[in-house]
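Problem: given the chain below (309 residues), write out its structure.
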Amino acid sequence: MSDSFDIFNLGVEDVETHQPERTSVNEIYKPTADDGKDGTYKALIRFVPNPENPRKSLIQKYVHWLVNSNGDGKLVDSPQTIGEHCPIADVFWKLRKSDSAVDRKSSEKLKRRQQYYSLIKIVKDPQNPELEGTYKVFKFGYKIKEKIDSELKPDFGEPTQVFDLFEGKNFELVITRQGDFNNYDKSKFSASRSAVVIGDSPAERSKESMATIKEELEAAPSLAGYDYKAWDEDTRSFVNNVLRMYLNPGDDIAAVTATPASKTTAKAAPTPVDTAVAGSASTATAVKETTAKANTDDDLDSFLNDLNL
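Solution.
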């Protein structure tokens, strides 16, 4: 992957899609089948590059939805997102491998899930026409991620960088209901490539057109708040309290969640929850420093200055 690229000239390898919150509901685009006509939601959207760091135009992370004894729920990012040890996963597998059917069923409440976030422009949305032309953060699952991967690395034909502003493809979002869940099987990328629409016309590789794109993207929601978050003290306490609900009264949480190398000294060592948080925090700091440099290198103004128009 080349270091000399910009949002107006994306190659197939220029967006990291293997890895992997701002909490404003208004900036999240997550329609459901129930919001559509006759149980089907249809819209035309366009994936666009992240202006803060184009290589992170697709954010991926693992999450756990945890509920404590008071019924309070919290979405917790898994340290496994950044390759760190996750004590939630330890307890999950302890329950999943148990001889008890009750334990195996309980493990579902600790199951890890994948979440993806990208910046999109809404081209057409008959259900919500007021959103057309706006930029939103699109939250989606693995089914749509597979469709992105299929464009980047197709079994046949030429690959398409779907985040490319001029040679990408629109995405035909079709959401139906399958049981209690939304289904995206009918969603697909358009057959032909096209430029992102600016106003009523496709964008062109001109200074004026690219200046407009730059202005629009700089005003779009930021993806930074949706990336992995290391556990703070409150989150660590919440996780500990939830995990104790699934352990036997005599179980030592440190012993249960210890990594194999540390099991012999588990009682004398800090709990893996503490260790995971400390490790995640240090890793997160390194990630932030790297991202800060990348953001400087990938600044939009630098992109525009490097263009040979």
